[in-house]
Specification:
- The chain is of the alpha/beta class.
- It has an 8-stranded parallel beta sheet.
- It is globular and about 65 Å long.
- Helices cover 57% and strands 11% of the residues.
- Helix 14 links the parallel strand 7 and strand 8.
Length: 376
């Protein structure tokens, strides 16, 4: 997997950053590849409809289970739930030693509620409860998007003791709302007699997509001042998010919860594979190393980091965070509308995940139809 070389992922771990694999497939689980990734320094795993859709199209590893379920006249929704549940349960079991060894603060596996519920708080919460019962593993995180409606579902899920991976965060304003929902949920859970030490959360801040959108707008501006900001927006946004994290989790409000055993809601850098070939393949890894963070990497980014990443990661410090603030101010000065960028990216993200979800359901329906006997 690493050509006999020592994995550089351990260096990130030594810097206080957990690296999670942004991929899952039945083949990965059956071949032992996930276990080998854990040995190389992977500390968790995330999934989403796009990842599952890709996995189900990449071979026949799911066909036997789909055939078995189809023979029992299971409908498409039942097949989907059963297929995903098996993969998530097996991944949780592989990650269980990491979870136990970390004292229950790492080693998580994420499964996403249907993105078609992104704007339905009640439906999202109901499906989150279903996934918790279905998977029945302590190191499960339920992915809920940080839409306006999702914020309410996040707080309610935490208040019920459900651990959450908040996904599709693009703006600093929305990130502040996410952290507030987490703290509010913990306070409600504690007031109801729950033990906050058993609840975990990460806040997934999407990175590379921000550069993709902002760079296109900078190009249209066409000035030298705009050109000088190309490729800097995403890192700046994430660095300022980390500053907001430090501020929120050094507050008196957090200190009261921490004394009761509450866990940090760690910032998670998502969408960290480089989209622009002009930029370094490890741009969104090298620049965002900080304690109490998570970076989720697809297999291609892990390989790139192994080949090109720094042997000694450079830690993010206050100077980098302040530089992030300045970059965002400079973007505004050349006419980039931050809130508009974030709103557009959130819509595109929800739409993209919903499309992948529908593709996956369609693939299952086609496989089921091919297996089920037709009318005589």
């Amino acid at each position: 997997m690493f050509g006999g070389q020592k994995s550089k992922l351990h260096n990130l771990g030594s810097a206080g950053q957990s690296v999670w694999l942004d991929s899952i497939s039945r083949e990965m689980l059956q071949s032992g590849d996930l276990q080998r990734y854990v040995e190389a320094g992977i500390r968790g795993l995330t999934s989403n409809p796009t990842i599952f859709a890709k996995a189900m199209r990449a071979g026949d590893s799911y066909d036997a289970q789909i055939r078995e379920l189809a023979d029992r006249s299971a409908d498409v929704d039942e097949i989907y739930a059963a297929v995903v549940t098996r993969d998530i349960q097996q991944a949780c079991d592989v990650m269980e030693p990491v979870y136990t060894g970390s004292g229950g603060t790492d080693g998580f596996v994420s499964v996403e509620v249907s993105p078609e519920l992104a704007h339905e708080a009640d439906g999202t919460l109901a499906e989150a409860r279903d996934w918790v019962k279905r998977v029945n593993r302590p190191n499960l995180l339920i992915k809920i998007p940080a839409t306006r409606e999702g914020i309410g579902a996040i707080g309610s899920a935490i208040a019920e003791g459900i651990s959450v991976n908040v996904t599709l965060i693009f703006s600093l304003e929305r990130y502040m709302a996410v952290m507030d929902a987490y703290l509010d949920g913990l306070e409600r859970y504690q007031q109801a007699g729950g033990n906050p030490s058993g609840v975990n959360s990460v806040a997934s801040f999407f990175v590379s997509r921000f550069d993709t959108e902002v760079d296109a707008r900078l190009s249209r501006v066409g000035t030298s001042a705009a050109a000088a900001l190309a490729g800097r927006a995403a890192v700046a946004n994430a660095r300022v998010a980390y500053l907001r994290f430090l501020q929120t989790f050094s507050s008196d409000r957090w200190a009261r919860l921490r004394r009761q055993g509450a866990n940090l809601q760690k910032p998670l850098w998502a969408s960290t594979s480089t989209k622009n070939p002009a930029y370094s393949d490890t741009l969104y890894i090298d620049t965002l190393v900080a304690p109490e963070t998570v970076n989720t990497l697809p297999e291609s980014a892990i390989q790139a980091y192994q080949e090109q990443g720094r042997s000694r990661p450079e830690m993010m410090g206050i100077n980098q965070m302040v530089d992030g603030v300045i970059v965002l101010e400079n973007l505004a000065s050349v006419g980039i509308e931050y809130d508009d960028v974030a709103a557009l990216l959130e819509k595109k993200g929800v739409d993209s995940f919903a499309a992948s979800f529908r593709e996956m359901i369609s693939d299952i329906e086609q496989k089921r139809a091919a297996i089920m006997p037709g009318p005589s």
